[in-house]
Amino acid sequence: MSERHPQYPADALFVNRWSPRSLTGEAIDDQTLFTLFEAARWAPSAFNVQPWRFSYAKKGSESFNTYLDFLIEFNQSWAKNASALIVVLAKKTTITSQAEVEFPSYAFDTGAAWASLALQAEKLGWVTHGMTGINKEKIAATLKVPETYSVEAVIAVGKRGDKAELPEGLQAKEAPSDRRPIEETIFEGVGFKE
Fold first, then answer.
1. How would you list the strands of the sheet with 52-58, edge to edge?
2. Residue 29: per-residue pLDDT
3. DSSP-derived 3-state class of residue 88
4. Which end of the chain has the least Cβ crowding within 10 Å, N or C?
């Protein structure tokens, strides 16, 4: 694995987490899977709305191939070896004392839940890979997702496998990516910096 070097002393849990595609297909037990969902459950959420929803299929289940078919062909080529596939949904509205209204931070909060899930997986020795190369319309239709929800992504969960098992074109890419220098993603005071 390539070395990652933080510019500042962030915990290794954050620095070492990455999104491999090489997975073993090893079974994941409910205790482990639900521990990931438990971590997501405690993510920060504006007004404690908790807009995230997760739908999942474990490898070997009746619905796993249906979930695999939610992915574009490129992602199917490697995600077929996932232990579980998780659809990430976000409720776009919330109920106030007067009515059901748009919830402005639904995507932001749901992203926090996904990050919590990914970090919990890393801590337990599992890996995750979030994908937006998916068929959102097919997911919404198959899962009967109400219009007040947004299909955000699909997450592959598994144990890290041998990159030699990946399609040839993906083997060279199977390494942690670096990140932009922190100075490129932050700015102080007024004025936007791209």
1. 52-58, 84-91, 149-158, 127-131
2. 98
3. strand
4. C
